[in-house]
From TrEMBL:
Keywords tagged on the record: S-adenosyl-L-methionine
Pfam families xrefs: TrmO_C, TrmO_N
Organism per entry: Thiocapsa marina 5811
Extent of the signal sequence: none
Family: Belongs to the tRNA methyltransferase O family.
The protein, known as: Uncharacterized protein family UPF0066
Ranges for domain TsaA-like: 5-147
InterPro entries: TrmO-like_N, TrmO_C, UPF0066_cons_site, YaeB-like, YaeB-like_sf, YaeB_N_sf
Amino acid sequence: MSFSFAPIGHIRSPYTDKFGIPRQPGLVTAAEARVELLPEFAREEAFKGLEGFSHVWILFVFHEDCLTAGWSPTVRPPRLGGRESVGVFASRAPYRPNPIGISAVEQRGLIKDARGLALALRGVDLLDGTPVLDIKPYVPYADSLPEARSGFATAPEIAAADVTFSVEALKGIAEADPTGVLRLRALIEQVLAQDPRPGYMNRYPERREFGLRLYDRNIRWRIDERAMHVVAVEPI
């Protein structure tokens, strides 16, 4: 038996590249996004009652590379530094038999504008353009299990004690986000505080300079022990 599903919409988020996306939802609260619904699903009545829920489950497809790359029975999760293998079903790795993901994020209500109907989100960990299969309300009494064990996926440590900006970087932020609507400075701070570098980078202590993409900007930074220094925010 096989099944075929079509997306109901697509994610529009600040993460225009996989590098820099937080490893779980909710870690970067400045990451605001939206699900832009396809015309046949852009029905306001389909969301009646959702205003009473603060969070939703987004069911989505890992679409970049994963659809053609196949799957692996074992993976090396970032939480273990990319050095130890676990079974794919003991992970949230994207290279799965069916590349489907779930993400619990804050919902901020419907938006209706020139691009159509969309559901506003906050705290996302989703790549721009991600196909969305379904949206379901997060129900705390059933979905929150405080007594559950989390295996190797322990609570994340904040990697960066401080994030600083050069004068040039602040100028770049002001040019990219003059009204502050994108919350670009807070977004950069929160993304870098999670240390987006792959776990295996501790094998290369000599490498100190990195870059990532947020919206249409290239963020360049240097790392010094536990501090992140943003040196430039440039157009891509």
